[in-house]
Amino acid sequence: MGSAVLATRGVSVRFGGVHALADVDFEAEAGAITAIIGPNGAGKTTLLNVISGMVAPSGGSIRFDGRDITAAPAHERARAGMVRTFQNLEIFSNMTVLENVAMGCHGRLSVPAWHSMLRTPRSRRIEADIRREAMEALEFVGMAEYAQATAKDLAFGRQRALELARALAARPRLLLLDEPAAGLNIAETQALAAMIVRIRDTYGLSVILVEHDMELVMGISDAIMVLCFGQTISRGTPTQVQKDPKVVAAYLGGDEE
Amino acid sequence: MSYRKDMIWLGCFFVLLMLAPAALPNNYFLTILILGCLHSLNAVGLCLLVGHAGQISLGHAGFYGLAAYASAWLSATAGWPVEASMLAGVALTVAVSFLIGMPSLKLKGHYLAMATLGFGIILSILFTETVDITGGPSGFVGIPRLSFFGREVKKDLALYRVVAGVLCLAVWLAFNLLHSRIGRALRALHTSEKAAQAMGVDIARYKLFVFVLSAAFSAVAGVLYAHYLTFIAPSSFGFMFSVELIVMVVLGGMVSVPGAIVGAFFVTVLPEFLRAFENIEVVLFGAILILCMMFMPDGMAGGWNRLWARVRRAWAARGASGAAHG
Q1: Are residues B241 and B303 in the same domain?
Q2: How much is the pLDDT for B325?
Q3: Interface touch B199/A110, C-beta < 8 Å
Q4: Which of B176, B191, B209 lies at the smallest CB-CB distance from A93?
Q5: Same structural domain for residues B221 and B322?
Q6: Are both B170 and B63 inside the same structural domain?
Q7: Does A94 touch chain B if contact means CB atoms closer than 8 Å?
Q8: Domains of chain A
Q9: Percentage of chain A exceeding pLDDT 70
Q10: Do B176 and A91 count as a contact with CB atoms less than 8 A apart?
Q11: Residues B257 and B313 grouped into a single domain
């Protein structure tokens, strides 16, 4: 268990009277692709929001790389090496593709504000570095040719790839993907699966994946946790989870007994 | 626009500002030119805050006035040197904007507009009611004129050059900022605060930064205003002026710094031309603004871009048909 890059202990979230998450223990091993699955409304995205700091838990703790980050705001977690993508695409629509990806470098390639205002040599160097690394990330996802396009003009699948490139530009140690295959066709989903594995292998990072597409999840995950109504009902390797009667019942709506 | 294009624009603008007085028939127009520059300074700051970062302020006339009154009081009443008063006036305004910005910027959209509106109104009441300090509704008279190291800038033309120089410097700073990681972060948090945070942007800090920066631009304009006119009155710093500042930025196309400047000059100069219509002046002013927004919804910068694209297309078509006929 010492190799867990991220661990939650007893995380709970209540929205009014609803328990979105109840006492969830979750662990993602370093260098692994860990998936969180479950029926609609199970609390998968909420868990991802708690991990990335977008939602404050009402109880429990979160550790990232052995450090307690329960109270850290979202931007600090990002700077600590945890970057996420969004289910409903949160691209910076009015900016160019390159500028979008450059935002990924924001926390990592930094310089005091007055350097930027006076455009000092140091500021220019940093801007050149940002540009170069943003281009590298774009090349990695195969979108270098769209660098100067306005983000909102891209096709949907490319916007997804753009979000991925933006996250990569941050050189995270932990990548959180919130339903990356939503809205993609079969070919695009297969390309995405290959891409996620390639990202993990190239950058040696850990991935937490929230996803509905079972073929994608079963194909690339090293470990899976199944959530149902805010509670963990199963965890293990893809084959273990698939055979678990509780999981079958949760998805098919049968009795648990 | 690329940084280079922006710099070329700034160079041309500077030359234009320096040559403009030679084309003017009398000193009265120089006054309008100086006011245009001061309004532009305000508008450039607001363009960063409202256009790029998407944070609406209806209180910037308050910052403009606060700096003007502070510098006026320090120099005229407390007997400080003008340079020190101006610096202190700007510093005070920056400090106040910091204190106002910290709680207000937690609000969004209309609520932020309301909070800054309230602040602006409080300040404008203060300017009017603290008669002992500000001279009240009849204004603050006897402010020393702008001076450097004991040498007064006597001629309006020299003072105009100082103001124009300060404006160009501010525009340069704004362009640098917009073409840097900070400018990108501001645009990013405008579009999606969630995603900006997820990229490591401390959105509260960035909002406060750009709020204070825009207040500083207004403050610099305010102290120059006070030591140019040597007389200030509360009516110049009321709610209507805050609205006019927003109008300048909107007319300019929100995100365009050159646009904001054109908008500022437009709003400054237009009433002078409408003065002949006396009673219906305000109505005409409003009607012209409505027409502008109807036909140039993305502002003068957008209107200019479309016009330019059309001219280029027409040119290309002429070239093509000419080649076909030849």
Answers
A1: no
A2: 60
A3: no
A4: B191
A5: no
A6: yes
A7: yes
A8: 1-81+172-257 (3.40.50.300), 92-170 (no CATH)
A9: 98
A10: no
A11: no
Question: H or E segment at B242?
Answer: helix B239-252
Q: Give the closest residue to B238 by CA, choosing from B131, B95, B122, B99.
A: B122
When CB atoms are compared, the residue of B182, B200, B201 closest to A116 is B182
Give kind and range of the element (H or E) at residue B151: strand B151-152
Pair A234, A225: CB distance under 8 Å: yes
- Identify the domain containing residue B324 by its residue range: 299-326
Given a contact cutoff of 8 angstroms between Cβ atoms, the answer to whether A135 and A98 are in contact is: yes
* B78 and B51 within one domain: yes
- Considering its fold, how many domains does chain B have in total? 2
Q: Range with the lowest mean pLDDT among A2-6, A133-137, B2-6, B212-216?
A: A2-6
pLDDT of residue A250 exceeding 90: no
Least confident of A62-71, A185-194, B65-74, B298-307: B298-307
B123 and B82 within one domain? yes
Output the pLDDT for position B185. 97
Residue ranges of chain B with pLDDT lower than 70? 322-326
Q: Which pLDDT score, from 0 to 100, does residue B326 have?
A: 46
* Domain at B224, CATH number: 1.10.3470
* Local confidence band at A256 (pLDDT 50, 70, 90 cut-offs): very low
Residue type, A24: V
Q: Look at residue A257 in the predicted model and tell me its pLDDT.
A: 44
Residue A127 at interface with chain B, using a CB cutoff of 8 Å: yes
- Phi and psi at A25, nearest 5°, equal -100, 125
Residue A99: CB atoms within 10 Å: 22
Q: Does B128 share its domain with B152? A: yes
How much is the pLDDT for B170?
98
**Domain check: are B289 and B312 in the same one?**
no
Cβ separation of B188 and A109 shorter than 8 Å?
Answer: no
Beta strands A206-210; A174-178: pairing state: parallel
- Chain position carrying tokens 């409202």: B50
Nearest to A103 among B176, B179, B188 (CB): B188
